[in-house]
Specification:
four-stranded antiparallel β-sheet; 8 strands; about 200 residues; alpha+beta
């Protein structure tokens, strides 16, 4: 099944197509216990894996007090709004029927996040990545030659702008190589390829 591009542009003689990535890697795939990650459970809608392999109930003690995780991680409550999709936030959404707390964002205490403000910014970044993933805001690019053949492609860019930027750079690289061939220069350029 072919997926229609969301945008198309040219760089020299090459066409770049920006295409939604429906097989995008989940942010859980690169979550690291020494970084920032979600511990959440929205049952059948959304239950990401996490590097500690814990559940939201593990983050708080039996009586709702913070657990031992608070010594090693900054803990930020995670809320979800689930209605024709899923949106995440570090603050409550205010809809008592379709939203509520589903877990936490844990951010490792240490040199990278030594203040609550720095840790909160990291948590916001994790939530933003997850919102892009959950809303389908992940793309790839294809670079096509004048015959319509693929000469390059790459996938997994969060945000259309990132895919456009990388697609433009890849097409520019191929245009540079094509110009060298057109002008009789050797295709293998030791300076360009670091040989």
């Amino acid at each position: 099944m072919s997926i229609d591009p969301v945008s198309t542009f040219t760089v020299g003689r090459f066409t770049v197509e920006i295409i939604p990535d429906h097989d995008a890697e989940s942010p859980s795939e690169w979550a690291d216990k020494d970084g920032a990650f979600l511990v959440a459970d929205a049952r059948r809608y959304f239950t990401p894996e996490n590097p500690l392999n814990i559940r939201p109930d593990d983050v708080t003690g039996e009586d709702g007090d913070e657990s031992s995780y608070a010594a090693d991680y900054w803990l930020f409550p995670l809320f979800a709004y689930i209605h024709s999709g899923i949106a995440l936030s570090l603050g409550a959404f205010g809809c008592r029927w379709d939203s509520g707390q589903i877990g936490y964002v844990l951010v490792k205490r240490g040199a990278d996040w030594d203040t609550e403000a720095a840790a909160h910014a990291a948590a916001e970044s994790v939530v933003a990545e997850w919102n892009q993933y959950l809303s389908g805001d992940v793309y790839g690019y294809r670079v096509l030659d004048t015959d319509g053949d693929d000469v390059d492609s790459c996938w997994g860019f969060y945000g259309e702008d990132a895919a456009r930027e990388e697609g433009r750079a890849a097409a520019g690289h191929h245009e540079t190589l094509a110009c060298k061939v057109d002008h009789g220069r050797e295709l293998f350029d030791p300076i360009l390829f670091g040989a």
